Amino acid sequence: MGIERGARPPPQRGLLSVEFALLLALFLGVAYLLGEAARAMYLAVTVQDMTRRAARAAAAADFSDPAAMLAVRQQALLAGAGGRLILGGAIDASYLRIDYLSLDAANAMQPIVAAQLPACPMANLLACGNNPHGAGCIRFVRARLCLPGGGDAACDAVPYQPLLPLLPALFQYSPAAVAMGRATTVVPAATLGHLPGRGC
């Protein structure tokens, strides 16, 4: 007893549903991975551009005015709702570190610790006039993406946080193990907010 010639085979119920479910799962997985890759590339470009904007603005802003420096960070961030970088997870203005650098006698850039910063832009002009290679003469401005809370010298890398927790679960890794680039930008110091005739 078999299938007669010309007769239809018995219907295979549910086979189409199983194939559709498998293809849908594959499609959604590929779409998720492509979306995460696009977001990672977007963030790499965006944070580099963010440090460029911050360094250029800080080179012309008064480093002794906390409100002016906060404005520099916020404007460089191009933040969305809540003051965070769009698609950047927790990244906000506190992740943007701005350092001031001196140039020593060997023409090597050295970070200036907060205690050695000049009191105001006019004091920086006087310090650089007296000794252009002095430890308190701001010659360059550096902007970097760092984890907030580090000391003057520490710049810990920011871990990449996927939009959904699915990626670490799929590939068995800790999100803290994958770090974003520090996106460092260094520019020459400009006016640093100095206005003619204005002292400290």
Query: What is the number of helices?
Result: 4
Taking the sheet with the most strands, its summary is: 4 strands, antiparallel
SSE topology string: HHEEHEHE
Major sheet strand order: 2-1-3-4
Distance between the termini: 104 Å
Low-confidence parts, pLDDT < 50 over ≥5 residues? none
The total count of strands amounts to 4
Average pLDDT, all residues: 85
Our estimate of the beta-strand percent is 5-15%
Helix content: 25-40%
* Shape verdict: rod-shaped
Secondary-structure-derived class: alpha+beta
Oligomeric state as shown:
single chain
Radius of gyration: 27 Å
Short description:
By secondary structure, the chain is an alpha+beta fold. The protein contains 4 helices and 4 strands. It has helices at 15-58, 66-77, 121-130, 166-171; strands at 96-103, 109-111, 140-145, 185-188.
Word description of this protein:
- This is TadE/TadG family type IV pilus assembly protein.
- Residues 16-56 form the TadE-like domain.
- The chain contains four helices and four strands; from the N terminus they run H-H-E-E-H-E-H-E.
- The protein has helices at residues 15-58, 66-77, 121-130, 166-171; strands at 96-103, 109-111, 140-145, 185-188.
- Strands 2-1-3-4 form a four-stranded antiparallel sheet.
- A hairpin with a 5-residue loop joins strand 1 and strand 2.
- The chain is rod-shaped and about 105 Å long.
